[in-house]
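DM from R.C. (forwarded with permission)

"hey, sorry to bug you on a friday — could you get me a structure for this? deadline for the figure draft is monday and I only need the backbone to look sensible"
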Amino acid sequence: MDIGTTIRAIRNRKKITIAQMSEGTGLSKGFISNMENNNTSPSINTLQTVANFLGIPLPYLLLEKEQRIRVVRKHERQYTTHNKENLKVEHLTCKGGLTMLRVEFPPGASTGDEPHAHEGEECHLVLQGKILAVQGEDSVVLEEGDSFSWNASVPHNVKNIGEEPAVVLIAIYTDIELDDRL
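My reply, with the result:
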């Protein structure tokens, strides 16, 4: 963990000197310097004191860098096509356990000829059009503004049953890295 560097960055951003932090927390200037240089491992109580002084939540200090906010700018997004029906897939998030996709289904297009399954949970929001969602023996027609979720380990399929393109926002959560989650 790189807690000290995070503390220093926050302190500097807030224009707080080590002397001010020492006075506000009761910690010595030497200890604060060692902590910010990652030369000492502060206790949870000490981190709570520092977090309170800086006005930040303690859990923020405990996050690893890859757990912090990840931004994908519109011009940096990855675009792919999925299956023979050329579903246009816009990847809205970075790699990780949570994936968010914007998928455009041409009229009649689906996520595949047969229902498929994979690890994880999915949540869908229909942004445009009319789709049929099938999971196991259940099926439902959804239109713009409707949403649904399911356990993706049960075979499922999504199909555009409208005459216009359908656009669906899909969030997928899984503990493992999957290449093909639709």
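R.C.: lifesaver. Strands lie at 78-82, 87-91, 98-105, 121-128, 130-135, 138-143, 147-151, 156-160, 166-173.
me: no worries. DSSP finds five helices and nine strands in the chain.
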